[in-house]
């Protein structure tokens, strides 16, 4: 029986159902509370755009909710683990299971299986829904919650917050749509700098297109910093050294691309000799991130064992919560280190997971003993 992790079908379904209900309950609670707080901060900006109303607020909520659900799903699994295990311990159900001959791993097996399925669902949810919500919301925010420029058919999605350098000069755009020579930039700013780094001229335009070479700004407004004068022009070509291929590579947001799209982007960057550490770390984290839900039952298992009447159940729950939150802190720190090259990308994404997997297994074995 010790080698059979699911000795009872009835017990497995009972624990799995209890765990799933608590995961969903905690997740819905967290998303609703955080979404309400987020709407309090953003509603003013949304309604400030001409023509916006309740429909746009609901649209923002529909785009923001998947982001919150993806980010806080592992926290929900952690809290659901603690609630489930504390309840089982208080009702002496853990004692009954161990008296029936189940080991600690067999008690946790239904929870680990459920967490593995949650991790799989989280990966699919991130790839199909969250990445698209990220791209749309960032483009909408860059347009100050106004109309988003539509991407041309077959040319890819709208991207936001484009920032490029051409020698000493700087080109920035709120949004980018299209690809190659069909790229269209909106809310464009061009900063001409002196050799000392001081900005000499600032040129703003609502729209810019490729002029082969350079980028033609429509109805630009030129501001001369030295003379503090403003001049309106019909058209102006800037950034003659910036090719569409360079802009395509620069205007990449890893959070808005799927796992497979990000793989192609990394290959393109490597072929162009560009730095890929940040994108590769996020690529690996697309796998290790959802798997963090699998760790939570293991890290919270300390709350399941030990007698409830010993008076240490609350302390055990606090320790389990501390272990879970410590994982998220270490994971974020390692990912930040990997983004700027402090850690190898693979190590940055997987080291926290493997470290806390061993730590959780050690705690479980010591607790059982």
Task: Write up this protein.
The longest helix has 40 residues. The chain is an alpha+beta fold. The chain starts with 8 loop residues before the first helix and ends with a helix. Helix content is 59%, strand content 15%. Strands 1, 2, 3, 4, 5, 6, 7 and 8 form an 8-stranded antiparallel β-sheet that branches. The protein is elongated.
- Count the DSSP helices: 9
What summary fits the major beta sheet?
8 strands, antiparallel
Instruction: Determine the strand fraction and express it as a percent band.
Output: 5-15%
Mean pLDDT: 82
Question: How would you describe the shape?
Answer: elongated
Number of E-type strands: 8
- Distance from N terminus to C terminus (CA atoms, Å) equals 18 Å
Quaternary structure state of the chains depicted: single chain
Task: Report low-confidence residues grouped into runs of 5 or more.
Answer: 152-156
